[in-house]
Amino acid sequence: MLRAIVALLLILGSLVLLEVSRAGVTIERADVGDTPVSLYARPGAEGPVAVIAHGFAGSRQMMQGYALPLARAGYRVHVFDFLGHGRHDRPMSGDVGSVDGTTRLLVDQTAEVVEAAGAGGEPIALLGHSMATDVLVRVAAERGDIGPVVLVSAFSEVIDASLPRDLLLVTGAWEPGLRGFALEAARMVDPGAEEGETVIAGDIRRRAEIAPFVEHVSVLYSRAGRRASLDWLDTAYGRSSNVAILPTGWAILGLLGGLVLIFAPLARRLPAHQVHANDPSAGQIALAALGPAILAPLVAVALNPGVLPVLVADYLALHLALFGAAQILLLWRWGVTTGPVDWRALGLLALWCALFGLALDRYAANFLPTPGRLWIIAALALGAVPFMLADALLTYRAGLGRRFALRGGFFLSLGIAVALDFEGLFFLMMIAPVILLFFAVFGTMGRAAGTRSGPLAPGLVLGLALAWALGVSFPLFQA
């Protein structure tokens, strides 16, 4: 009971703070060509225009931490989805390794959004994260209507001693390489520049700001980084904003963590249904972890079909299917049974996964697929469902050590795949943290349901949930 009360208070408190951060701001949907754009502004706002762009595998929702304070301060903020990202259904294309390829298309797309945003002759502010930073610098180099530029976790070979003229670089303290680049960019203006110091040379103004205790993703929610960004723009436009920078990052963690925490008390209300299965021995667990870890990449790399218009998605679907099928075959040989499907557990877990996804989509990152992604999710499910069924069976009532060993085998197999084809499967390294987070969140809820219902219902639901999460997370891409 205490756990449920704590979780409920955490959820309610987080929701209140997240909604307060939106108070007084209208969020409207618009389209610039086929680019979806969200417009953040107070009713009747006439402040400067700011265009905000997300990083690789990001979305408009991921930039709310910066968009909302600017809008509350009176700015008119335009946030858009890059090609193939978020709710943008047109894939990225071109040569990702060439400035004249994919980068050129993203620069042109951003320029269209800037053009549509307009500002009545007033310079437009640009703010972007990670991948977007290079794109924004190139846009600023080609246009005469760009004002202050804020780059979060930046890297761009285009930055020099005079471009951009008004530049703030915000970097997480736990991003050593990018932190060094930001300081180097400041020292292009003044060789003696230090972190946190504004340097000025004629009409050039630059600063390398360090956001403490954050890395490449959590920097998007750093209160210090967001405060520095608002102050930088205010100074550039001769404004003064009395806007609180709320701890929305912690509130998002509180909301999502609370939803996971409260699921266990709910699951305990399910009727108990024990599955009497043969418990695999330590040697069998080792074989189930290492055998598929070697087999799956050796076969999948050779067969990599290249059909789905998502980076490495078709490979991953095949890898998951082979890995899961190999484990299921071993379990069948060992006489491990699944038990029946508990439809009440299946329904409750599916409902809670959907609720978690909707909360994530509203406050943190895109989780709702466009129609063009539905068939991709279906294709990924062909691999994800057998993979999660095998995982549910092998980890049913298992301790932490067994769960770590089994899932570690899967991550080992991804590493082997990358080693076999580094250039073609490099992006698997970016998918691994997504799957790790999936196990921590959805796996925890599935374990709570499985303890009561047996492993089959969690295996089915989490297989579909994994396919969904992968299908909406990574960019559409066609060469």
From TrEMBL:
UniProt GO molecular function: hydrolase activity
Domain Serine aminopeptidase S33: 50-162
Recorded superkingdom: Bacteria
Pfam families listed in its UniProt record: Hydrolase_4
Keyword Hydrolase: yes
Keyword Transferase: no
InterPro entries: AB_hydrolase_fold, Hydrolase_4
Keyword annotations from UniProtKB, A to Z: Hydrolase, Membrane, Transmembrane, Transmembrane helix
Chain segments annotated as transmembrane: 244-264, 285-303, 315-334, 341-360, 372-392, 404-420, 426-444, 456-477
Protein name per UniProt: Alpha/beta fold hydrolase
Organism name: Histidinibacterium lentulum
Taxon lineage: Bacteria, Pseudomonadati, Pseudomonadota, Alphaproteobacteria, Rhodobacterales
